[in-house]
Structures are given as C-alpha cells and as structure tokens.
Amino acid sequence: MITLTGSGLTLGQLKRIVIGKEKVCLCPEAVNKVKQSRAAVEQIIADGRTAYGINTGFGKFSDVTIHSEHTEALQLHLVRSHACGLGEPFSEEVARAMAVLRLNALLKGHSGIRPVVLERLRDMVNLGISAVIPNQGSLGASGDLAPLAHLALALIGEGEVTLDGITLPAGQAWEKKGIRPVRLRAKEGLALINGTQAMTACGALAFLEAEQLAMQSEWIAGLTIEALRGITDAFHPAVHAARGYPEQAAVAERMRNWLDGSRLTTRQGEMRVQDAYSIRCIPQVHGATWQVLGYVREKLEIEMNAATDNPLIFDDGENVISGGNFHGQPVAFAMDFLKIGMSELANISERRTERLVNPQLSAGLPPFLSPEPGLQSGAMILQYAAASIVSENKTLAHPASVDSIPSSANQEDHVSMGTIAARHAARIVGNVRRVLAVEAFCAFQACGIHGEEKLSPPLRQKWDVLAGFVPSLTEDRIFSKDIAKIERWLLEEARKPDPHSDTADGS
C-alpha cells in the first residue's frame, strides 16, 4: 500500500502502482488540507465573490458571471463539452497513471474539491477501473483538457471504462462495485481537467521503459563487442576520468564488468589498433543518453507532485489566484529531450548491427551471418529493417515543443504540445527496443559462430537465455518472429520490479 500525500511520489512508486497494481491510500493530513480548501470555495460562493471557474465561465468566457444556482450545471457542462478527445485510446496503464497523478495533485489542497472526489479517484485506482481516454486532442496548455475530461467523465458515471479487461459504460462499472459516481459541485470539474497529467503519465511510463532499455542496451552492445573481437582498452577508467562525465564513466565501468573474463575481446594492437566509433564510443554516446535520462527523471518527479490546475486556492481562500501552472512546457521540453536521447541509442545500435552483418567490417564473420552465403540471405534484411526504424525515429524526434497554435479566441495564445511530445517519446522508446532486438539477434548468432563458451560469464548467461527461445541461424526463416520474441522478452524484463527502486511508501 502506497500512501499518497500530494508530494514525494516517485517514479519507482508510480511503477509499483501502475504496473505492479499496488493499491493506494490517502494521507489524512493531506485530506484535511483538501477540506480546508473546499471550505474556502463554499465561503466564496456564500459571499458572492467572483472567482474564475467557481462562478464564472471558462477560457474566453471568464468574464461571464454564473449565478450560484447554476454552479453545478456549469461543472457538468464543462466536463461533457471538453471530453472531445480523438483517436485510439491510451493504454489502460496510462489511464491508471493519469488517475494516480491527478489524485496526488489534488491532495496538495489548492484545488477546492471535496474529499469524495479524492475517494472516487482512489477507488478507480484500487478497483482497476480505467477510463477510456482518446490519446489525441490535447494542446498541452490549459492542461490536458480533453484527456482529463474523459477521466472526469468516468468519475461521474459517464463515458466508458475498462474493468477486468472488458470495456463498458462507466455507470455500469460503478454499479458492479456498489459505489455511487460523483456528482460534481462548484470548481470540481475544472479542478479535474486543468492539469498536465496526460502528458506526465504517458511520459513517465515511457521514461520507466526507456531507463530499463538503456541498461539493456549495454549488455546487447557487449555481445556485439564480443562478436567483433572488440578492443577493451577504450573502456579503461583513466580515459573516462579524464573527461569527467560521471554517466560516461559509469557506462564504461558496466561495460568492463560485462566483458570481464571474455576470451573473444582483444587489446590494442592484437588485431587492430582501434575500433570504430560505434564500439569505441559506447560510454560517450550511451553516457550522454544517461545524462538525458537524469534530466527527464528530475522534471517528471517535480511534475508528478505539482499543483497544475487553475485557479489555485491559498490562505484559506483569501487568495484565489489565476495562474498558468497547467502549461506543459517543462514536460514538453523533457519529452522532446527524451526522444533525442533514446533515438541515439537506436542510431548507434543500428551501426553496430551493420558491422555484424557486413563482411568488410565483421572481423571474419560470414557475410550477413548467412549459413550459405548467396543461397541464403541470412540477416541481410534485418539491418534494412533496423535502418528503417532509425529513420522513422528521426521524424518522431522533431521537437513538438517548438510548435504552438492559439486557442480559445486567442485567450490561450501559447501552448506546449507536451502531450504530443510524450506520445511520440513513447513510440520512439518502442522503436528503440525493436532496433536493439535486431542487434541482440545478430550478436547472438555471431557469438554462436565464434563459440559461446568463449564469452564472458555474465554475457554467456544472456546468450543462454536467448538460446532458450531463439534458434541458431542454420537456415533462412521468418526472422520477424525471432525479433518479436526478443522484443517481448526485453519488455517483460523492463517491467519487472526494480530491486534498486525506492521502497519508502509512508504506509
């Protein structure tokens, strides 16, 4: 059980909740802050004070005053009208993460909602009720309005949800669980849909996969080094200390550990003086990606614990301030940076695959690893496939955050496109896994040709696992099936609980 407080939620805890299906509970102290914030909203209504989103319209309609008898209808109309998402739905896991992150943000006590709204969000998470949320339609400022409106619909018993793998009307799901949906009151609809939780949820889950994939890329590169009789001197600690980047030095250390005990690797001058950049510069390139990951982790964990709706309530309602915390620019930049950093892992991986299959570069391996060069093509077209995906990533890596289109009659005249950036980041991460699966397949086959018994002990363990579900290349076959198996295995490994993840949950 993980206690949500409105602050301190980590990516490791989010993984446990969303992927590990761990349940959540609400911090009583945080709920008390929420009650105080709600009392402030009620007082504003009773006093007849004008406050944006409580008794006014929204966006360009912010100057339209709403009579107190219509404040509930105002929130219902808001949620229904804004639930205009397009395209295929986000995965259930992204929808679950959105609910967790919205709940955590509301627990900060600046949003003016009732505790019952928190309880229903908690119920969604704990009971496995996931809103069906189309993944297109957010500009990434004014919050993820359309996606979060679909989440809010589920809370009020409208729209669709998934429960136990079945899609059904939200009202039926709540009825099955014996729980009444929420009836929104003043400010609550706005509090639910103003925020960055779609881009942050999508981005956080993409990041968690990316981080594990960066680790996996290192042992896959290690197999390639073994297959190409690579030179280990390039990983000497003195080289990396001389430059000073800790991430680069850490990659070099892990590469030394992966290759320790190998009878295939070489030293300077034994076979050649130096390797190509895709081998020699693994610490520098992969290390730079780890720098990107460190930046993205920091920004995501700030955003996961941020109050991102509008207006925000402070000082027991004395200050109700309209600001712009819903603007997704920090997440947009982080996601665009993640796209670039992960694309480079695929770029350098594809170049290593080329060296494995190209007889002019492969240190004596059969052309294209073919068992009968000429009669059988071997892994020739696998390199084509990897190159195609690498090129696709270059298009997806174009920064979404450099674009902006005005909305709401130019009241909302600059937006982040952060949700597009997060969606594209998730696609790139999946593509990188496929490119690495191609390299792993080719390196596995090449190491088998040299003799797997000559591998370092840790890489021999990886080779043995692959050998359990990937046959040796003795005859041309449908290689897409092999790549799909490796890709699934890499994903399954990435989704396992991280023994080094934080465990402090406050419960």
Give Rg in angstroms.
Answer: 26 Å
**Derived structural class:** mainly alpha
Strand content: 5-15%
Tell me the name of the CATH homologous superfamily of the largest domain.
Fumarase/aspartase (Central domain)
What is the fold named in CATH at topology level of the largest domain?
A: Fumarase C, Chain A, domain 2
Taking pLDDT < 50 over at least 5 consecutive residues as the criterion, the unreliable ranges are 503-507
Q: Please state the second-level CATH architecture of the largest domain.
A: Up-down Bundle
Shape: elongated
**Series of secondary-structure elements, N-terminal to C-terminal:** EHEHHEHHEEHEEHHHHHHHEEHHHHH
Helical residues, percent: 40-55%
Q: Trace the largest sheet across and list its strands.
A: 4-6-7
Mean pLDDT: 93
Oligomer: single chain
CATH class of the largest domain: Mainly Alpha
Helices and strands in order, then pairings?
Blueprint (H helix, E strand, L loop, with lengths): L1 E3 L6 H8 L5 E3 L1 H20 L23 H12 L3 E4 L2 H15 L8 H13 L2 E2 L2 E3 L8 H11 L4 E4 L2 E4 H8 L10 H6 L3 H31 L9 H7 L2 H14 L17 H4 L1 H22 L8 E3 L4 E3 L7 H29 L22 H17 L21 H33 L6 H11 L11 H17 L12
Parallel strand pairs: 1-2
Antiparallel strand pairs: 3-5, 4-6, 6-7, 8-9
